[in-house]
Specification:
Rossmann fold, globular, 5-stranded parallel sheet, ATP binding, binds shikimate-3-phosphate
């Protein structure tokens, strides 16, 4: 199969557990593209895990780092940028992402998300919220922001990773 060279970046956004990192890894491998995992880069630079950054410095501090990194990454092309689920919370990030590349929104039902995150303790935002009601409520609060940022919306429910990536590559 042919690989693509994109004259822009592919920016993956979406709620926690919608598959951004998995899709990034798969696309990176099959399309020979460099991946930037924003959370990983932030944790690396801070020398701390994401939960520790939230606990010790607070969410606003984390959001500042996130916005700053996003700005810094704007010049490259043909990269995959896998964003943290809350990247759309700051309006300026939405503007910045649109400059950086094509924004691909991954979606999943609250049930699917719960299934994917239930054994995971690395997401401070979901601490004590591991149930479909709380997940659905948080998704509703963020929905308009995700949609405002997205150039393309891809549902990941009941699909294999290769199906999801095939869809992205044909539609982007
Ligand atoms: C967050 C999502 C996380 C991470 C942080 C905050 C959020 O990324 O950036 O815990 O507010 O949705 P993932 O979407 O990769 O879990």
């Amino acid at each position: 199969k042919k690989t693509h060279v994109f004259p822009f970046n592919l920016i993956l956004i979406g709620f926690m557990g919608t598959g951004k990192s998995t899709v990034a890894r798969y696309l990176g491998k099959t399309q020979h593209m460099e991946i930037i995992e924003m959370d990983e880069e932030i944790a690396h630079r801070e020398g701390k895990s994401i939960p520790d950054i939230f606990a010790e410095k607070g969410e606003a501090y984390f959001r500042d780092l996130e916005s700053h990194l996003l700005k810094e990454l704007q010049r490259e092309t043909n990269q995959i940028l896998s964003c943290g689920g809350g990247i759309v919370l700051r309006p300026e990030n939405i503007t910045q992402m649109k400059k950086n590349g094509k924004v691909i929104l991954l979606t999943a039902s609250p049930e699917t998300v719960l299934e994917r995150v239930k054994h995971d303790n690395s997401r401070p935002v979901l601490k004590n919220r591991k149930n479909t009601e709380d997940i659905a409520r948080l998704m509703d609060e963020r929905r308009d922001k995700y949609l405002a940022a997205a150039d393309l919306v891809i549902s990941t429910d009941h699909k294999s990773i290769s199906q999801i990536c095939e869809e992205i590559l044909t539609e982007v």
